[in-house]
Amino acid sequence: MAPPVDPGIRKRVLRVIFVSLLLDLISFTFILPLFPKLLEFYRNAEAPVDAAQPQSRTLLSAVLGYLNAYKAAFSRPIDSRYDIVLLGGALGSLFSAHSAIRSLLQAVASPVIGHLSDKHGRRTALLASMAGNILSVLLWVMAVDFRTFLASRIVGGLSEGNVQLATAIATDISDVNSRGSTMALIGACFSVAFTFGPALGAWFSSIATVAANPFATAAGVSLFLIVTETVYLYFALPETLPSMTRANGAASAGNDEAKAAPLKAQRTNSHFLLNFVHLAFLLFFSGMEFSLPFMTYDLFGYSSAKNGRLLGYVGLVASILQGGVTRRLPPLLSVRIGVLACLAAFLLLARISTVSGLYLAATCLATTSATVVTGLNALSSFEASENERGGKLGVLRSWGQLGRGLGPVLFTSVYWWAGRETAYAMGALGIAGVATLVLFGLKTPPGSVKHGVGAKTLKAERKEL
């Protein structure tokens, strides 16, 4: 059995994870409320709808040509204003991860990044990932045309490994009793980022600095945050891979016992079932999540600023739940609550006609954001021994990213063709199937339920930052 992690090292690493992941996710969420206007800008510049304007042969005009052919395959006429919705869904599927970013590419890259971190160390893999992230955002800063913007999404999709590596690091420094609350810390980073990131992105996008790229200011601030994160990780993050830390300790102390092979994890849930639940959940959830700015744009005429405030509200509620509720719940119970909240959100979005109804659905969405993925990561970590965590968590993320990749384009296709009510009703039916698997198929791993956790323990966990 591996020796316990020194409390001082654990506290230090948790602080580094929290700060770096917060910088990373705030940078990432800048673009979320901008997608409708951003895509509209590139379409107007390279493939204008007005036939009187000169038509150019560009990558975007070719993509829209394929979309028009796809649209013509349907028997009912579809208004061209929905082209932005479907184009956004296609981009979200091909090049996106949380709420539509670089998903299909991450489905390929995540297992590779995870296995490399198991072999070469978490720190090395994370710094290599950050180099790719810097290049990705730099391309966005220079994206005066759609082709360059597309390149930035591709590079980012192949290199993004921050979240899965932060999850592996958090698992490395946690025992079975503290793992759930440590995973909740990572979820809290998402929630805080969604509270401030979209609103900041919308605000920075209103500051014009480069005429050829009106979003250059937001992209430049995003680049600054990513570079700052990389420098901070280089100087502050120690290696946490147990086999490396144990080997270093054995070499310095001459302790043969420290070189012993780690014990295998006791299996409770199959990795296939966990991976499938992750895929199925994100297939429907990501479609709803990605369609939200387009739905508000269509239904209420929301601007980027109003979409930023809506996403900020989701982040605020989710962060409150992460800090006060999710970290105290067993992972499986957390997943079950989140999936049921997701079902409620789908049903509400199918019927709403008022802003108050929209924010009620957003509250359910925030509950889902605060619980499901965090809980599934924790459940998967219980099924993996320490020398395979990076790989197993990478595969879990890969299946999830496949769902995230397919969800936006499939959901926006249904929304585009059949309308909001049908799209969200079909999503509710799919999530009902996921809820059945979660309620009756998954089991609680030994050690994931805290017994006799008192106020002192909870207070100590809160002080770790």
Polypeptide structure, described:
- The protein has one domain: Growth Hormone, Chain: A, CATH 1.20.1250.
- It has 19 helices and no strands.
- The two termini are 27 Å apart.
- 73% of the residues lie in helices and 0% in strands.
- By secondary structure, it is mostly helical.
- About 3% of the residues have low confidence.
Chain-wise SSE layout:
Layout: H1 7-29, H2 35-46, H3 59-72, H4 83-95, H5 103-120, H6 122-141, H7 146-159, H8 162-172, H9 179-205, H10 216-236, H11 242-253, H12 271-299, H13 304-324, H14 331-349, H15 355-369, H16 372-382, H17 389-418, H18 420-440, H19 455-462
Helix pairs in contact: 1-8, 1-9, 1-10, 2-4, 4-12, 4-17, 5-6, 5-7, 5-17, 6-7, 6-8, 6-10, 8-9, 8-17, 9-10, 9-13, 9-16, 12-17, 12-18, 13-15, 14-15, 14-16, 14-18, 17-18
Oligomeric state of the chains present here: single chain
| Low-pLDDT stretches | 93-101, 452-458
Radius of gyration based on Cα positions: 22 Å
Tally of helical runs:
19
Q: Tally the structural domains.
A: 1
Q: Which descriptor suits the 3D outline?
A: globular
The CATH superfamily bears the name MFS general substrate transporter like domains
The secondary-structure class comes to mainly alpha
- Report how far apart the termini are: 27 Å
Would you tell me which CATH topology applies? Answer: Growth Hormone, Chain: A
The strand count comes to 0
Q: What CATH architecture would you give?
A: Up-down Bundle
CATH class membership: Mainly Alpha
Arithmetic mean of pLDDT: 82
Proportion in helices: over 70%
Strand proportion: under 5%
Task: Summarize the main sheet.
Answer: none
The secondary-structure element order is: HHHHHHHHHHHHHHHHHHH
Membrane topology: Multi-pass membrane protein
Keywords: Membrane, Transmembrane, Transmembrane helix, Transport
InterPro entries: MFS, MFS_dom, MFS_trans_sf
GO molecular function, one term: transmembrane transporter activity
